[in-house]
Amino acid sequence: MSPDTAPILNVAKLTKRFGGFYALDGLSFHVAAGEILGLVGPNGSGKTTAINVISGLYAPDGGEVVLDGGSIGGVASHRLVHRGINRTFQIPKPFLSLTVRQNIEVALAYGRAAVAPPDMAALLDEYRLTDVADRPAADLNNAQQKMLDLVRALATRPRLLLLDELAAGLNPAELDWIAERIKALARSGVAIIVVEHLMGFIEHITDRVIVMNAGKEIFEGKLAVAVQVPQVIEVFLGGEHAA
Amino acid sequence: MPSALKHMLFIVAPLLAVFAVLPGVYQNHLLLFNFVIFLILAQGVNIIYGFTGYLPFGYVGFFGAGAYGFAILVMHYQAPAVVAVLVAGLVGVALGLLLTPLLRLSGAYFAIANLAASLAVLHFVANPALENITRGPYGVSLTGTFNPTLAYTAALVVLALTLGAVVFLKNSRFGLALQAVREDAVSASMAGVNVVRMRVIAWLVSALVAGLAGGVYAWYVSVFYPDNVFSGEFSIFAIVFALFGGVASICGPIVGVILLYGIYNLIGFTTPQYFQLIYGLLIMGLVLFLPAGLVSLATRRGWHVP
Amino acid sequence: MLIYALVAGVLFGLYFSLVGIGLNLVFGVMRIVNLAHGDFLMLGAFVAFGVVTLAGIDPLFAVPLAFVIFLMVGVLLYWVLVPRLQGSANPEMLSIILFFGLSQVIEAVTTIFFGTSERSIQSRALGTVFSTIKVKLFGGKPDAGGPVQIFGQGFPASWVIAAATSLIAIALVYVYLYRTRLGTLTRAVMSRRDEAFATGIDVDRVSAAAFGIGLGLAAVAGIFAPFMFGSVTPAFGADATVTSFAIVVLGSLGNPLGTALGGVVYGVCYMLVQTYLSSWADLLPYVLLIFILLLRPSGLLGRRVRVA
Question: Could you report the predicted ipTM of this complex, rounded to two decimals?
Answer without folding.
Answer: 0.89
